[in-house]
């Protein structure tokens, strides 16, 4: 019976994992580093397993991201939105009409730092209270996209046959559906008010492109040596998909998750602006619509009314773009190994310095 270790005979290294062409020995799969290191020894205690998972999935990615300005800026922006949204929702009272003086310009009052609109609504409070809803929509849309796309694409590519034909047909139908008209019709018919339902609605057909791309990747992976070895030794299909197939797809899935969230952001703002989505909680699209309908584009004293939500949208989008670009380095095995080695050397240097310091103290 063939196993993954069958190649490690006569002192020869295992070749069940493909290597890069330059002979460096680095795994061709972006997540082979994670996968090989992530095989936790069953003899380890619970605390040791937790430490090992934290090192592989938190510490080592952080070593890469902390040296990439795009990752740092992107994480800072997104984290700031999350923190401000939570704190604002907890401690900042919602604004209302007549909350302050009408048409107050921004940066003129400590009570209303970003000014007020035509009706005395505090624009800073309104902008902050719109953050939780848009983040919920973005998260729901991103999760729906990657779950649907990953499940459909993986099953279609791995199973093949009739299952592949049926799922591929469904995928092709959704790919060819007119996205914006479909969303508008569904929004008018169902009038969803939940932020999570709206996020799913806005990505109702976006998952199909991900499913097709994943299917093509799985068709190649299913015939790799290590996948064949897993089938030969009788591993369940679910285990093979989780351990051998999905790790290859993680970089692409992660990037598409961020892309789906950006799609939800712009789609939601646009559809709220034109009045397709039902008005409920405070939303940047509604703010832009109200500002435009009241002539903020042509009245200098109201220009900040339309600029503030626009800036909030653009900055959040830039943060997601930068984070998405930096993820390629996080999943690059060569970069991870380099930064891992640098991190270990730094820790060794710190230990040496600490040891010398203790010796001097004792002396």
UniProtKB/TrEMBL annotation:
Q: Which residues form a coiled coil?
A: none
- Describe its membrane topology: Multi-pass membrane protein
Provide an example Pfam family for this protein. BPD_transp_1
- For bias type Basic and acidic residues, the affected ranges are 1-10
What cellular component terms from Gene Ontology apply here?
plasma membrane
Q: Which GO terms describe its biological process?
A: transmembrane transport
Q: Where in the cell is it found?
A: Cell membrane; Membrane
Q: What CDD domains does the database record attribute to this sequence?
A: TM_PBP2 (cd06261)
Which stretches does the entry tag as region Disordered? 1-42, 338-363
- Tell me the ranges covered by the ABC transmembrane type-1 domain, including all copies: 131-324
Xref: InterPro entries: MetI-like, MetI-like_sf
Q: Cite the entry's keywords alphabetically.
A: Membrane, Transmembrane, Transmembrane helix, Transport
Question: Could you say which protein family the record assigns here?
Answer: Belongs to the binding-protein-dependent transport system permease family.
| Entry protein name | ABC transporter permease
